[in-house]
Amino acid sequence: SRLKFDEFKGHFNHSSQKTLKVNEEIEEISFAAVEQDKGVDELRDAINLIHSTVQRNTLVVSQTLNLSHMLSSYIDYFDNVLKEGKKEHGIEDTLRFERIQWDDKYRIGVNDMDEEHIVLLDRINSLIDDMNQGTLVKIKSSFIALEEYTIEHFTHEESYMRSIEYPAYESHKKVHENLLMALSKFKEDIEGNQLDGIKLSSFLKNWLFTHIMGVDTKYAKHSEEFSHAHSHHSNSSQVA
65, 108, 164, 219 — which has fewest CB within 10 A? Predict the structure, then answer.
């Protein structure tokens, strides 16, 4: 009887320990569930905040677009009023594009390329003159002359860069390709009688001076270093 009681007590204690362990696990699971609920709540709050921010941003963009459209309408209205006023009083409505003046500060120090840049500027100014006269046939003719000379100049320039082993040749060539693509787009506009003269005039000025003073000066500097290095090498060989 004593043995049975001890055996029962042992089973009971063992069961009690298991029960305690199960209770601990249940508490851990409950705690995890509560934390998970908190996480879900925080995530939901974050999503609501984002949604609210997006709504506000959308409203701002919408209001900005409406304002832009309103301003555009006003500009169109006053532009039409101005044109009608000029027409009524016999004022000639001609838009003048300024010619681009050459300055020796645009010289990069490579004689052949400098001379070609001057010719390029002459072609650009011829186009600007024809744009001011407003004759579509002349504009087309001078534009084609500019495009053809540009291709010729770029070919000479690329050949020269290869001759001096210019390390940035490929990227410079890519710049040439992009400029020619831009010219092609303007050519399409001219042929379709949809040329934006202001846009083309701005492009020509930026292209000429940004390209010469920003990109061409780099290969000109390399040319000077290349010539100096080869001259030094030649002198050394003669001494040897």
Answer: 65
